[in-house]
Amino acid sequence: MLFNTHLFVALGLFASALGAPVAQEGHEHLHAKRGGSGTCSFPNYDGMVAVQSSGKNAGWAMSSDQSCSYGSWCPYACQPGQLMGQWDQKVTSYSYPGSQHGGLYCDDNGNLQKSNNNKDYCYDGAGTVSAKNSAGSDVAFCQTVLPGNEDMLIPTSVGSGSTQVLAVPGTDYFASTAAHYYINPPGVSTDDACQWGDDSHAQGNWAPYVAGANQESNGDTYVKIGWNPKFTGSSLSNNKPNFGIKITCDDEGSCDGLPCSIDPSKGSVNDVTSKDSSSGAGGADFCVVTAKNGAHAKVEIFSAGGN
Asked: What percent helix, strand, coil does the chain show, rounded to 5?
């Protein structure tokens, strides 16, 4: 199978396996240059979603101890299935510090500047990948903020028994990067999951699984699921997750890479069921499916051993 390196540019945890650029360790602590002492308020424009608004971020898709200060770029979250349409147009490659220049620019006078008039604040992604929840409780998909600090702050809640479209970037997105999601155990809310945590709970940046997706200009969509090396490399891995994930396609004949699944009840932690699995940074295994010609794929969550 030919892998798309763009898919893994945004997925720094796995990029090294395929020769793509790797995000710097500890990226969550890197902040863009700050200006004066004032701040810009979260605007709540069309499609925007306030993130963990009780912190200094006050709704912006930034760390809770980080404010939207004068002279800085301030990323924001959008509704499920939508992508942030604004970032520093002078930045065209995935490299620090430009990779943090997402969202609106808060200038030295406290005015928010829109840098790309050709895109809305939020716009629909490719629409070719959905999350299907076949587990017994709601599941939180937490998308990383890119361009931004790459914390998993953007919430998508997938109700039990329901399907939710995920945001899938095309080549027009920032530096042709992909969307990256942390998949949390059923029953963990987006409020609890979509923030930086620690290894006391298998959630947030310590969630068992990750997923990623992007679409090429020819209509092919690359979808990846895998183990989170933060999880597999910690004591949390002593307890197998009680849920699994797999990629399914509405038209299997248009999807390369099937089967691609993880069921911890049928193997050990870090096992992946696939004809063509790979290992990424930290030795975490993953598999990739290519949905061709605009075909639709699903990342399905199920109770371990039940499917």
From this structure: 15, 30, 55
